[in-house]
């Protein structure tokens, strides 16, 4: 992701558009694409790669900008082709012994929508006989030719692929056989005629017989595929620049379909699920290209190759070791064996599960292949977060119902419900429910909140269900297309294999795994994550029963903690949360909200405060709240003894503490009709009316409350100061920081500061202790960020409230926009990820950057932190490291993620400094 957001590197105006595989290397991904760069790397390692060359992304860029290939390209390709022909001793499509090639797309980042590879380019009516003759295998030649027409027809000429598939099925049916290898030369020859007929019919022209024309058309089709809708959408969402272009690889053909001593396979250098070293892969005899992964016939495990072809197997094992040592990482590979000779067709650093990423990183350190800093780059916070969700018990029996898209991780079990009303009703009576919809819309919001998990049959990772569920941190599987959801009859059906139909009715138990997308019938037992058990201190990494994963996580976390510059604090309001956060590695509290201290039984005191007519009534109400808050703070400071605790004074609008306006109106109306109106209720109703706001988010809240309600903030400051004094007396080490929310201008802060300082001085004098309290503000309004230089005069620290800052910078009301139109925005690619999930670097981020610089210019020792939800988001942590904050603060559960990413960010910025 980091890499993706970079713009295309400017290329020197070179006229070199073609690189032989011997000329490139793996660092040239910008120019040669991932596939081309790695083919060159393998070639230069001396591995058996079929010779070939790569047309650069630069050539593609010229084509995309000007609408035609750069004039020099044709000659350059001719020169490289001539060299290839000379080396191979035959020319492209030569009638009696044709050289054949594959044309393969390959951009810097692999992406869906790009053109599929076309194999066997160069075959024609003229050369098919030559190929048969040379190979001594007529069937093979016709099979290769029909594959070419099929692939070329579909991907280059845009013919519906189904037409070819149907023709194959028909041929098999006519002959009464089940699989393609049972078709003989004569059948395939007939099929070629059928295919050519399809091409003529669909395109109005024939299948091109000139080999060079075939090649040129295929190259152009690869260039064009850069701009398919699917590729464009993917790039927008992944923030891959639209102007990188793709490279094209021309690779001489090798044949796995030359009989039982030939075949094609895929392999990993270690197990991508566990990281264990061993033999992992699949092999298919007598097959070409994608056959091995397409499921047309049953593959055999790679280990089987040892028996089938020992020399090739041994050589392959050797090569896999070479690749691992060279890339210093797990690689995946594609290979083909042609009559007992092994050929390497592709390699790249392989994808892996989250658990394997941690294990492999530490295994590679132990092997001495990478150092600790590099190990940190091999894992990320998203993977760690995945490992921290509870999982379904691997050992428990389960019945798979279907699969969807893993949209929001976690393991959720509950009773199936098909509408939001039922979800809310059942969950109120204590039931756990899974809300199942075809797709969700804003009307489903309450149901989604009530549900344990959400399952939909339509929509992808950016669908409403997925976006909202992720925002809520709720387990979600979406787009499970095989499920037939019938909301009217309140049930879902799945056509399983062998026409077995499973029906789930409302109330039936169902289990969904948001980390894998799997859906199970009934209740699958859930087990806690061992990684969380470890962070909680209930499992020790050194213990005998600690598994390899926990040990790996333990080691990686130690690396991260050693490297990172950012401190990590937590957002916690209670002693219990604080204690947990400490176990997870929190170095203090970055945000303690105080609003919960005004709820429950204390609400009545808040009502009295709001209704107070006279100073003495108000002081009375505040006086009642003071000891309660003080006791809360004492507990909190004790739990965080020796570490900073940032306490935010009251932030939300007051009406949140008053009864609901409708309820109260009804109560008062009823009482009036009975003629026994309650004086207090009447006053309360008036107050509720008075405090009602059109836009509470932008209304009377934060510092504005402190300025308008006399004594409110002073009471909170007194409670904090007295609690701190109490802790000092108890030989504790309280480190409280008082934070003023929603400041827009320094004047607001100055007034509150003067008042606070006076209170603190009083408490210090009365208790005879020096409290060392510091006073700062949140930066969560654009004006505060813009005038940060002035605000820093009155603040000892800033804490960026990036939730509100995002709302106010974008003019978004989060609760409204996430549910209503974010899906549309994501689908249109306006942003790739919600700005509430990952900090918007360009907009919100640039205000943060400005405030950091302006604040530090005024007060060089200004302490800087962030307490929005972005504090636990991997990409955002990197940004906060870059702009030079002192700490991030996040919810207790996200602390390990923040620690890890802070370590990774430190390593990455060191890397780029020295470059
Ligand atoms: P993808 O990016 O979809 O993996 P590839 O370019 O790797 O596409 O090619 C698709 C399939 O064709 C792969 O199985 C690959 O190994 C095979 N293939 C590509 N080029 C050749 C070739 N020159 N000879 C034999 N097989 C090839
Ligand atoms: Mg491939
Ligand atoms: Mg706020």
Description of the structure:
- It is a single chain.
- The chain has an eight-stranded mixed sheet with strand order 12-22-21-14-15-16-17-13.
- It folds into six domains: 151 residues, 2-Layer Sandwich (Dna Ligase, domain 1); 85 residues, Acyl-CoA Binding Protein (Up-down Bundle), CATH 1.20.80.30; 87 residues, 2-Layer Sandwich (D-amino Acid Aminotransferase, Chain A, domain 1), CATH 3.30.470.20; 57 residues, no CATH class; 139 residues, Phosphohistidine domain (Glucose Oxidase, domain 1, 3-Layer(bba) Sandwich), CATH 3.50.30; 312 residues, TIM Barrel.
- The protein is built from 36 helices and 31 strands.
- With 915 residues, the chain is an alpha/beta fold.
- The structure holds adenosine-5'-diphosphate and magnesium ion (2 copies).
- One magnesium ion (MG) binds next to loops.
- The site of one magnesium ion (MG) has 2 residues, from loops.
